[in-house]
Design goal:
The chain has 8 helices and 8 strands; from the N terminus they run βαβαβαβαββαβαβαα. The protein is an alpha/beta fold. It has a single domain, classed as Alpha-Beta Barrel (TIM Barrel). The chain has an 8-stranded parallel sheet. Helix 5 links the parallel strand 6 and strand 7. Helix 2 packs parallel to helix 3 and helix 6 packs across helix 8. It is globular, with a radius of gyration of 16 Å. The termini are close together. Bound molecules: ribulose-5-phosphate (5RP) and fe (ii) ion. Its cofactor is Zn(2+); a divalent metal cation; Fe(2+); Co(2+). Belongs to the ribulose-phosphate 3-epimerase family. Pathway: Carbohydrate degradation. It catalyses: D-ribulose 5-phosphate = D-xylulose 5-phosphate. One of its GO terms (molecular function) is D-ribulose-phosphate 3-epimerase activity.
Length: 217
């Protein structure tokens, strides 16, 4: 079954506990946490203190998406705060193999994220080492942007590598996911759909999650 990861970037931050509890009860599979530093992306969001604060609110895995430069400096802090998955951008990691293994050494699942305009070849050498690949389907930095369709072709091509030598790797997409775009992603081989505005901008979160899940299947 398709897994859904609501992105709290589009939640009401003044009521974060209530928002997380609501999507948890509504059938979410992960909680997606967007960490932005104002350097790698033109926005600033949250850090390890917030991850620590939300950790007791839910038993769902916390999927922490690091959109920050030099992520190596923060792996320990996010792991100790309670992250279950930490994903780092290929664009921010000159020593990607070292970074991925530093995450794993903390007992956390390790994922690599790739921007829409970054060539898929950067994934090839690291694919057997990661637990997850997150394909950005918008340029990272903000919620509510339009899905970039040509990423689908990249997902299909990387899926061929996955089938050949890394079948354990999960594929996740992030950005512009809604009932219209979900199906194309699943058909291309995606396992986990991140959705922010398509869930948190709806008053009935249960229905929003079910709508995306149904459209995907
Ligand atoms: O990483 C992100 C942005 O950089 C967010 O996870 C993503 O944008 C989710 O928001 P939406 O579903 O509204 O596009
Ligand atoms: Fe994200």
């Amino acid at each position: 079954m398709t897994k859904i990861a609501p992105s709290i970037l589009s939640a009401d931050f003044a009521q974060l506990k209530k928002e997380i509890m609501e999507v948890d009860r509504a059938g979410a599979d992960y909680i997606h946490v967007d960490v932005m530093d104002g350097h790698f992306v033109p926005n600033i969001t949250i850090g390890p203190v917030v991850v620590k604060a939300i950790r007791p609110i839910t038993t769902l895995p916390l999927d922490v998406h690091l959109m920050i430069e030099e992520p190596d400096h923060y792996i320990e802090a996010f792991a100790e705060a309670g992250a279950d998955i930490i994903t780092v951008h290929v664009e921010t990691c000159p020593h990607l193999h070292r970074t991925i293994h530093a995450i794993k050494e903390k007992g956390v699942k390790a994922g690599v994220v790739i921007n829409p305009a970054t060539p898929k070849e950067l994934l090839y050498p690291i694919l057997p080492d990661v637990d997850l690949v997150l394909f950005m389907t918008v340029n990272p930095g903000f919620g509510g942007q339009k899905f970039i369709t040509n990423v689908i072709e990249k997902i299909k091509q990387v899926d061929e590598w996955r089938r050949a030598f890394a079948p354990h790797v999960l594929f996740e997409v992030d950005g512009g996911i809604n009932e219209k775009t979900a199906k194309q992603c699943i058909d291309a081989g995606v396992d986990i759909l991140v959705a922010g505005s398509a869930i948190f901008n709806q008053t009935d979160r249960k229905q929003a999650i079910e709508t995306i899940r149904k459209a995907a299947e």
